[in-house]
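From: lab user (bench 3)
To: helpdesk
Subject: output format question, protein + 2-hydroxyethylsulfonic acid

Hello, I'm new to running complex predictions and I'm not sure whether the block I got back is the full result or only part of it. Here's what I submitted:
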Amino acid sequence: MPKTAVITGASSGIGAASARALAADGWHVVIGARRVDRLEALAAEIGGTAMELDVTDQASVDAFCEAVESCDLLLNNAGGALGTASMAEADIDQWQWMYDVNVLGTVRMTKALLPKLVASGDGQVIVIGSIAAREPYKGGGGYNAAKHAVAAATRVLRLELIGQPVRVSEIDPGMVETEFSVVRFGGDEEKAAKVYEGVTPMSAEDIADAVRWVASRPRHVNIDQILMLATAQTSAQVVHREL
Ligand code: 8X3
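Helpdesk reply: Thanks, we reran it on our side. This is the complete output you should expect:
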């Protein structure tokens, strides 16, 4: 029987690319997101199972996780940033959403699926973090705070699960060209395009490669943390642009 991987935020970007990569490696992939039409098209393409999921809504998480029969791998990918306001201008609603989707979304999903991951006998939780989890940057306040919290929670989980059959891994990407920046800038495609101007950023498939590698290590190997950057980026705000 194929092993089951549950992926959040799977309708696009890193989530969708990881679903394709894991399905190609023989996993049965259960994909969740709010945009069900996109999800269903992807599920049909890779022979997976699509189910509506909003990680900010406990009832949605409960219904989704109850419907998952077994779970060998949970990829906590759903997340995102809103805005680049300074601390002086912090928008509390944006902060609240970022905390909810990135931190609480990861906690809700992990908590709900942990019994099934333990029962699998060789479970894995992989969290998509960010360079923003390691390095604060100007205008990053709400996202930095949320991703630092995600990293802290992930590392606590790793500590608490020692001795149990569940591995815990964190993959922290830098610049990846997905819908991430379009969402961050409230749909402003021009502003989003500027983020990647003159740079070859990583692609969602680059991160999916790391996911499939982490997911395919033997059970005695836990990849604790990976920091992945584009060659032209050496830290959050140090980027070489060929303009
Ligand atoms: C996305 C990377 O540099 O915009 O997680 O924070 S960054």
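A quick orientation on your result: The chain has one domain: 4-229. Let us know if anything else is unclear.
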